[in-house]
Hints:
The chain is an alpha/beta fold. Helix content is 47%, strand content 13%.
Amino acid sequence: MAGTNEQRPLCTGCKVDALDTSEKSPTFVPGRYGVVSLGLMGGSFAKAFAVAGAEVYAWNRTRSTLELAMIEVVSGELNEETIPTCELIVLAGYPASTVEWLERYAHLVSPGSIVIDTVGVKRVICERCEKICRDYPFTFVGCHPMAGTQYSGFAHARATMFKGAPMVVVPPEMDEFERASVLERLKELLAPCAFGSFTLATAEEHDRNIAFTSQLAHVVSNAYVKSPTARDHRGFSAGSYRDLTRVARLNAPMWTELFLDNADFLSEELGCVIGNLQAYKDALDARDAERLESLLSEGDRIKREIEGR
């Protein structure tokens, strides 16, 4: 259970044998957190932990952001001295930087600690990070908090960002007892965030679903505002426009990484929506009222079925 210094389950595939593992004592301080990258996600984790009264150590590429966070949120810098003292480390950077940080500092993570990420793709991240941690006696768990806004940066982070939100968890391969133990402890460590649910998935299940629920929505929204009419819409728009364009505003470098790391599933979803849009266009061009009404009714029916109404 969280709050003890008993030996924890190891990362899957660790090359350290049972005898060697037992001789390696945890160095973490129970309930101490580390956060890598203080953007919207990392900043929100740090603020949630801090509000709960926990010690939080952080690293951020931009020093001024870290110094700002250290005024009220962060207890100190996450460095070679403090990494071994953290029970949970949250990697909240872009995909490539997440892997790079773990490659550089995995050897400093305490035996028995848990390291999670917040990246919006899981196949690439889990494969690379699990490979890195294979030689070390800590557990890496792929995670994706299903929360956020169209804004980015520490200034928009908030302690309540994850309240009631789902957390998707992609645990490494391990026996059922180890998995249950790791997940129970992870839930306890993440309790300050107040997630509404924890959904277990494989990396492939995650990426296939997220291509539809998140990535496709960003692409469609971003493409939608490229209509020449968008510049003349003022006075003619209301809720529909706001809902469809909310995520057109995005962090282009980060989303480029995410889209390319999930290109196969995202391209498949784009092909599907392009085909569906073409059907509507064909019905309009033919002035085919019967066909158009059928398409609209089908979409309405599917939405109601999904919502259980």
